[in-house]
Amino acid sequence: MECQTCSESLTAVMDRELNGDQEKELKTHLSQCSQCDQEYQSLLYSYELIDRIPVLELNPTSWGKIRAEIINLPTQDWGWIFGLRFFSPIRWIPVTAGALGLVFLSLFFLNQSDAEKERSFHTFLQVREQMELQHVNVFDESWGGVMEPLHPNPFALHDHTTQGNPFTLE
Amino acid sequence: MREKRINGKNPQTFSISGEELDDAVSRAKKGSVQAFQKLYEHYGRKILNYIYRMTGSREEAEDLTQDTFILAYTNLSSLKENIKFQSWLFRIAQNNVYQKYRGKRPPMDSIQQEETPELSDVQKLATPQISPEDRVLSKELEQVIEQVISQLPDKYKEVFVLSAIHKLSYKEISEIVGRSLASVKSDIHRARVEVRDKIKTYLGENYGMSNLF
Ligand SMILES: [Zn+2]
Questions:
Q1: What letter would DSSP give residue B120?
Q2: Half-sphere exposure of A134 (CA within 13 A, CB side)
Q3: B interface mutation test: which of A6, A10, A48, A57 has the most B CBs within 10 A?
Q4: Confidence at residue B188, expressed as pLDDT on a 0 to 100 scale
Q5: Average pLDDT in the A75-104 region?
Q6: What's the CA-to-centroid distance between A36 and ligand 1, angstroms?
Q7: pLDDT the model gives residue B198
Q8: Domain coordinates of chain B in residue numbers?
């Protein structure tokens, strides 16, 4: 064993962190190397000093304060309940509401006869057309400006002037 | 009141076997305050002294120890292995200290400022061979050692305190501080050497003398 390895392991051997073989090897080195042994004795002395520094005792009133805080807390063992959280109704409320809505909507359409369905569809188209026309033509003074068409023609120019073909030479 | 001196061993309490610990933690998880009191009686002093070494203030250490145990009780269900209660508790204490002093060093004033108490009659009888001069030096030495420990950089201090004061294994310390075993081993060694060097500098030729304690 080299002196540096030995010196770096002196703390570990005193803290009983070396295995049997390592400890034996280190002790053998110490018995043959006075320099390392001196370092060992020096560190050992500091261990003894540190072991003698005073420690604080618990304040006798401390437990009472902790007890007062925890006594009103609910029972701790919620572990098994956490496992059931996945099935908790609270988690599933939005999902259930969405699913029920879909079911009602499909029932509403499924219950109609073919003629009724066609009428419904026709009414829907009419309403949509009216709404689009309103968007295009209505000039609402109170709103303060002309509303843009719902689906403006991207190729049309706002000033309606003719435009030359950009790809032909003038 | 000044802390009680315990020769030879640092924060020791009544022993608790692995089975007893497992049982106490299990019962505390189910809400048994009595079982939790048993855990407090066993680990309270260790946590108090750990926080005291980290903060340097007894008052702060008492408050943070209480916080640590309240936090431990309310989060006990998150502890998977009952047997690892001690490491888990120290980690909560460590987090409490760092949260309290996030970005600033704990005030290291109280350790040095505590008044040197008179020796009790029992202590005087127990150490009749020590001359008054030595007794003063020994008290002074105690304070020097405490100061040397308190001045260690936090990274070294936490592993030093857990190892030198609380006698925790390197593996357990590595779990608490979240660093590798090799890094913990090397940091403890550096801290031990630094503390030794500073005490040696202070004591000079008296270093190694058996009449100092
Ligand atoms: Zn050597």
A1: P
A2: 7
A3: A57
A4: 97
A5: 65
A6: 4
A7: 95
A8: 18-100, 113-206
pLDDT at res. A19 = 93
- Residues from chain A that touch B51, judged by Cβ atoms under 8 A, are none
Confidence class of residue A123 from pLDDT cuts 50, 70 and 90? Answer: confident
Rounded Cα distance, B156 and B5, in Å: 25
pLDDT tens string B145-170: 999 999 999 899 999 999 999 999 99
Mutation for A interface: B1, B66, B138, B160, most A CBs within 10 A: B66
Average pLDDT over residues A70-98: 63
Mutating which of B96, B184, B196 best tests the A interface, going by the most A Cβ atoms within 10 A? B196
- Which tokens hold the place of A8? 């770096």
Beta-bridged to residue A146, according to DSSP, are: A139
B112 with B143: CB under 8 angstroms?
Answer: yes
Q: Is B33 within 8 Å of A70 (Cβ atoms)? A: yes
Q: Do B192 and A53 touch (CB under 8 A)?
A: no
* Locus of tokens 């309290």: B100
CATH 1.10.10.10 fits B18-100, yes or no: no
Q: Residue A85 pLDDT > 90, yes or no?
A: no
More confident residue, A68 or A101: A68
Domain coordinates of chain A in residue numbers? 3-50, 114-164
* CA-angle at A50, arms to A46 and A56, nearest 5°: 175
ipTM over 0.90: no
**3-class DSSP state for residue A83?**
helix
Find chain B residues with C-beta within 8 A of A45's C-beta: 196, 207-208
Q: Which residue has the tokens 């939005």?
A: A94
Q: Which residues of A touch B186 (CB under 8 A)?
A: 8
Residues in B closer than 8 angstroms to A70, CB to CB, are 33, 36, 70, 73-74
- pTM summary value: 0.64
Condensed to tens digits (0 to 9), the pLDDT of residues A133-151 reads 665 444 444 444 445 555 5
On whether the B113-206 domain is CATH 3.40.1740.10, my answer is no
